[in-house]
## 1
Amino acid sequence: MLFGVFFVLPFGLIVAYSFWVTIDYNVVHHWTLDNYRYFFSVSTYIHTMWATVWVSVVATAATIGIAFPFTYWLVRYVRRGALQRLLLVLVILPFWTSYLLRVYSWLNILGDQGAINRFLQWVHLTDHPVSFFLYDRPAVILVLVYLYFPFAVLTLYASLERFDWDQFKAAMDLGATPRTAIVRILLPQIRPGITTAVIFVFIPILGEYLTPQLVGGARGVMIGNLIVNFFTGAQYTRGAAAALLIAALVVILLIVFRRSLEVEDPYRA
Amino acid sequence: MREFEVVSPRARLARVLLGSWAIVIYVFLFTPIAVLVLFSFNANKYGTFPFTGWTGHWYAQVFSDYQIKDALYTTLRISAEVTVVATIVGTAAAFPLVRSRLPFRSGVRVGMTLPIMIPGLLIGVSLLVLLTSVFHLQLSEQTAVIGQAVYTTPFVVLLVAARLQGFDPALERAASDLGANRWRSMRYVVLPLIMPAIFAGALFAFTLSLDEFIITLFLIGAHNTLPIYIYTQVKFGITPEVNALASLLLAGSLCLIALAFTLPIAVRRMRRVVRA
């Protein structure tokens, strides 16, 4: 019950807020669609929203694309038991360390004062910091992949580990090439796992604030940054509308994919 | 080991390629952290490349900085409170989830795990609005505790629920057959069985709370936790001092997580030894 109070109630409130108006820093209970109209009337905001979706899609695809061959290797080629568990734990370990620090650690490498730039100057390839590596979308995507990689491996591992590899061998015995066996036998069976991984990676990225803030610069802005700006600027109702756009997207995704989601407990690994 | 005796050259190639891919991934995962730790010992006062020599100076500075000390105490206070709240609420919530025949049980289940999946930003702003405009609370450490508890409780629920589901319900029936009332079977049978999970949950909650950033940013008001302090410093660029502090924090959470993973196993082993 208590949980409901602190979880469901706030969201109801955000919904209401998004339809109210802020006048002179006070929220007035007057139902209107103005906040949404305002949001969609500013081209920068629309642009940011599309950029957010685009970044999330690319980062999610990259994460899964990188994680799948890895997890496949881990399950198929590493001896089951202590070694496999250890290798898995090593991947998941960063997930349990500070999220802020994991973003921050990239500044040491990519930043104006970071290792790459310093190195380039040191070997006199350039005499001023190249901000190519930082403050743009590629940097944001790189760091996002880094952040959410453990999520993807964990969910993919859970489904690959349960897969009956004898079927795989049977397919090959019947003349299937490895590729056919993967595409026709393996992938259809672990589809729920892949969907879960996509959702688990995609949803948090949609609401990402810190990564674009620290490594994204002006060109890497995502919708999370807009929301924070609205709220720190006391434009509560507009912020609520922007937040609700993300929340709506999240809920739609969850409803569409609810059948194929496998909610795994994080401890099982 | 699974048998793949018939190893064609192509299969071997696939194996080598995938293996190298795995190595690339481990490098990718640990390079940033390694660089961070390395630079925290770097004598170069810009905290970056080139590496000019080893020093423990930045660590000494971290330990003598009163702002950091202040932020550390705030962080520990908040985390301790969050741990207590999340552990009690989470354990209590796990029981109806596993035991009762609640209507919409799977719905409730998904609902409980939602805070893990929902972006923290949304939890932060919605709680901000609720606490300040509806309950008219001042932002303080306590509001941050509420926010972090919403986020960490589901982890405890998941752990305890998994354990509750895992043990043999016949044990409980046996206890009541032997004359134990509900309280006694709870106290002497159920609790000892789920204790490792509760403990692990508490440790997870504590670790997550130590590192929590975005929800805290919205709810803490004028105070500083360590992550918030680091964030304000990072805005002005990298300093070797922040690298040192970050390394310490990383080491701290790694120790806690190692504890959370190994403790339940250790406890079980110890019990077995005691019984024998």
## 2
Amino acid sequence: MLSQQIVSGLAAGSLYALAALGLVLIYKATDVVNFAQGEMAMISTFICYTFLNMAGFSYWYAFLASLVFAALFGMAVQRVFMRPIQKAPVLNQIILTLGLYMVFRGVAGLIWGYNPIRFPVAVSGEPVKFGGVTLTPNQLFIMGITVLLMLLVFLLFRFTKTGLAMRAAAQNLVTSQLMGIRVGTIFALTWGLSIALAGVAGVLIAPTTYLSPNMMMEVLIKGFAAAVLGGFASLPGVVAGGLLLGVLENIVAGYISTELKNAFVFLLIILILYIRPTGLFGAKLVKKV
Amino acid sequence: MKLLKKVKLHHLFFALLFIYPIIVHDQTYYLYSGGLIFIYIIMTLALNILTGYGGQISIGQSAFMAIGAYTSTICTLKLGIPFLIAVPLSGFLTALIGFIIGLPAVKLSGHLLAVATLGFGLAVPELILKWDDVTGGFTGLFPDKPVVFGFAFDSDFKIYFLLLIMTLIVTWMINNLIKGRIGRAFVAIRESEISAAAAGINVPLYKVLMFSISGFYTGIAGSLYAHFVGFISPFDFNLNVSLILLAMVVIGGVASIPGSYLGAILLAMIPPLTSGLPGFMLILTGVPLVLIILFLPNGLISLGKKWGARQSAANATKRGETA
């Protein structure tokens, strides 16, 4: 019973980690928490659905096409909305992403309506048993792709020039500009990559939540919680945070109350931020004056 | 001369609020909308203390409102406490919760604070829903109309004036607060926490105070809302309410009392216009919010100030020519 809950928790947690990964990427590089992230992922999932049903693409082609769209969408939002207020107070940046949240959600509601739509799973098949624990192939696939994407992002940050530039731009905007880094391009790339990651999360979660303008709300909050648990700045920390959250949540649902599952997550965010604002695994933050 | 003109404008506006019921011929719909706008004005002013003057974000104001509304309803319905005591009581309880929520704000900067308040804003309605033997859960509660010293505010006309008076009192109190020592400390913290601390301001204390005061007035507004509308359920206090409040503050004008009035009046008209079309409601609130942040970060009220400055400059040159 417990081991089953832990394993299904890990599967759910992978999705939260995936959602958090994109959030943290933007936060690390551009110092912005994007509250519109979930709604952008939701729109990208609707685009995937459109490719699947209207254009008659196969699942994987539709998936890929929606990711290309998500990347372009992310870059466009960065260029059009975020860039002009790059130097504005943090407060304005937060409010702008909240405004975009409302606009994207509203537009999606107008275009696609509010009736939940069924969405196919990535990998179908009979559940597999591993010594008393059952998992569907789709859950295995989700866990695998999360680990893979996390590794890719980690390698990108660690070993490529683009990754180095992303880290540098986050550290000090002016210095990196002086060093010849095209900060504008780097920020746009970060947004593109981040929204594409969010798009992956959206398409993978749609079979469980069903496709609707509200689909990402819960996932986004849990992405936030995962990011907070992981310290908002460390990529492995965030993935660990997501997995931990998935497991904790499943245990709360199993042993305490299903209805309190969400309230638990929200209170956990507040508690962690209060006791350890740098996250469970995070390093100490130093505030720049 | 200029001062006299400004005072006149304010007086004219407040006089208009008093004769509004006569203008709209005592029609229930308009009186009801007017009452709702007053509640929004109080909440916008409360959020403006926090966000406009103090520079701290909150995406969880609906939770403060919910706590105020439920406290007042439970006090009057189940404990038999009179309305006149229940209102400040719900204000104080919400202030206490605001104090607790403000504690992390001492350590957290903008983004993480936004996440924390978002978590708070979403947790409270869920807890209310779960705690159904006291709160009624899904079915909600039906608070009574306000009664003060035996006088029942049982019509929309009477409640309109009750809310108007409450709004004016709150405006007066908040105006005094921000003009005074506390308000100046809030602004100093907004501008730079480090220089505020260097100037001898106890930053953690004042940050917690900001949340308590904002919570206090939002709780009062929540209490008034409950008795005004006559029905509350956990779903009335959702994320959209918090976002609309934030939009009211920003679109009207941060750190401005007339701005809060303007923002609340303008945006309160959107939900009734778009009822049944939630998509339009979000777009009509979100698009102006984005445009204001991009092009007019001090809100619509700053247009008036710019216009006023140009007028007085023009007057000055005119006088210079004639002299």
